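BACKBONE STRUCTURE TOKENS:
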Amino acid sequence: MFAYIDPTVSTRLVAQGKLVRIDRRGRPIDLADPVPSGSRALDVLGPIPLPLHVDGEDLRAHWYTVVRHTELEPVDELARTLRERGAARSFASLVSHMSVNSVLVFGDLSDHPEPLVRVHSNCLTGDVFGSLRCDCGPQLSAAFLRVADTGGMVIYMAGHEGRGIGLWAKAATYVLQDGGENTYQANRSLGLPDDSRDFSDAAALLLYFLGEERPFRLLTNNPKKVDDLRVHGLGRVTVEKHITGVGEHNRRYLAAKREWGHAIENGDLEPSHSGRDRSERRKRDRSGGQ
């Protein structure tokens, strides 16, 4: 791992306690042991202190990056080839071979008997561009603030753009939506699943950081996400609704999610809902959910 930077780096990181490998059940694996072909082992790098500024507030998190070991092997091989060719400037091409997830931990997890968790699928248009066609950006910001208040973690899942179909296909679905289809109909028109996201890596990370018996509160409106985590052994989940960022540009999108099964009620689609209960929820979280 990281041979394309310096073959000794991984040894130094392991010695510092900054690099571990876990199996799909969240159990540590000796990095010196060979990894079976096709294994879903994850390499976890961190913690790294990460100060954040979210909605006018300064927060402090501990950041971990996570990648599947099977994705690191071809990257190392490509790096060796580039290095032999003297093409180090082409190292930027390495990033296209890896989906790097992130875990941001707020506070000391051992201090919280039921930490707050958000498993957030990456959304370039919402999280970065600030698009109003979805609620992803506001959900991410609100999750950072709520989790920072109470202690817990945000798992940011790369490769989940457009519920797993990728940015290019997502752009095509937007064109179809502008022609009258809803978000799920547009996926089907392209011959794609309604939701093709894989939450097994998120489950492994929760098992590693929290353990199988630790209860936690999950910020989500999506029953599929809850079911997927439970299938992987996380049965002690309390769901907390996570509605924010409702507006004229995404109300139809959220209504389609409600019809698909998300825990969204008619009253949740009112524009005032977005700003109305963020402060109320944060006050409730500070008081221990009372």
